[in-house]
Amino acid sequence: MEIVSSQPQMAPGLARCYNEMAAAAPYCAPVGEEWFRDLGRLARAPCREESVLVAQEGGEVVGFVHVAVAAPATEDWHLKGEPGVIRFLAYRPGQRSAGKALLEAAEGWLRERGRREVVAGHCDYLYPFYYLPFGHISERISHLPPLFGLLGYAIFESEVFFDWPDFEPPMAAKPDLKVELTATHEQIGTFGPGIAVRAKQGKRQVGECLMMRLGRDSWRPELADWCFCESLQVSEPLQGRGLGKHLLAAGLVKMREAGARHAMISTDWNNYRAYLFYTNFGYRFLDRSFAFRKRLGRR
C-alpha cells in the first residue's frame, strides 16, 4: 500500500470510496465523481491550505483522507487558533491498516505546517453533501469513531439526532403565561430561508423556535420534504411550564403549511432534558455523531 497525493484521474475511485462509507449514515445520498475533481467544489468553512491523500493498493483507491489547515476565524462558529482539520476520512471496514496509515500521513502533513492540534470530522468542515446540519461523523459508520479513539483522539463535540417521518404536529395547549407568538419568514443563520416563531412578554422575547427546510440544493432531493429545528430556546425562568412545547408545535404547524412532511431535530449528546422532551414529543432517536480532537506531539 502507498499513500500519494490525489490526482484528477482518481476522482472515480474517491467517489466510490466515499459513497461506500457514507452509505452507512442515514440520509446520505451517493454523489458523483465530479465532486472530487476540484477541491473548490468541496468548500465549506474556509481553509487556507488543504490536500487529499490517497491510499492505493495495486492502483486501486482503498481509502483517502482530506486534510486542511483552518483559516483564521471570522465567524463565531469557525474553529479558533487555525488548527489542523481532517475534513473526511474514508476506508473500507476491515482495512484498519489503511485508515491508520492515512491518519498518520495526515498528521505528518499537519506537523510540516506547524500545526500542534487537529480537529477531525467537525460538521463545519465536512463535505457540503454529507449527512445533516450539525452532523459530525455518524456513529453508523461504525468502524471510524473507534479508529480515532484507538489513535489517541478524544471526543470534542457530539450531537444526537432525532427524526419524525410523516409528522403530525401535536395539539399543544397554550401555557398559562402571558405570551404572544409571532411567526416570520426569514434567513435562519447561514442555512437559508426558514420560519422563526418567537414568544414575547410585552417587548421582551422569552423564547424562539427556528425552523428551516432541508434539501434546498438540487443534489439532495431526498431531503426536499424535510424540515429541521435549528434552535429551540426558552428563557430560564419560564422553562418547564409548557412554552417550549407550544413553540415547537407552532413551528411544526408552520412548516407543515409550507409543505414539509418530515421533521428532524438535534441536541448535544448530554442534554438529557432535551433528549427526553423530544422523544416524548413524538421524535425518535436517529443517530449520534462525533467530532474529535488531538494534540500533535513533535517528531
Key terms for this structure?
20% helix; Aminopeptidase; 5 helices; single chain; 13-stranded mixed sheet; 299 residues; alpha+beta
Low-confidence segments, given as residue ranges, are none
> Helix/strand-derived class?
alpha+beta
Overall number of strands? 13
Average residue pLDDT: 91
Radius of gyration: 21 Å
- Estimate the helix proportion, in percent: 10-25%
Which second-level CATH architecture of the largest domain applies?
3-Layer(aba) Sandwich
CATH topology of the largest domain: Aminopeptidase
β-sheet strand percentage: 35-45%
CATH superfamily of the largest domain: Gcn5-related N-acetyltransferase (GNAT)
What does the overall shape look like? elongated
Report what the structure shows.
- By secondary structure, this protein is of the alpha+beta class.
- It has two domains: 2-159 and 289-295, Gcn5-related N-acetyltransferase (GNAT) (Aminopeptidase, 3-Layer(aba) Sandwich); 180-260, Aminopeptidase (3-Layer(aba) Sandwich).
- The protein is built from five helices and 13 strands.
- The protein has helices spanning 11-22, 96-112, 144-150, 243-257, 272-281, and strands at 2-5, 47-57, 60-70, 84-91, 117-120, 137-138, 154-164, 180-187, 193-201, 204-213, 226-234, 262-268, 284-295.
- Strands 1, 2, 3, 4, 5, 6, 7, 8, 9, 10, 11, 12 and 13 form a 13-stranded mixed sheet that branches.
- Helix 2 links the parallel strand 4 and strand 5 (117-120).
- The longest helix is centred in the middle third of the chain and has 17 residues, at 96-112.
- It is elongated.
- The model has no long low-confidence stretch (mean pLDDT 91).
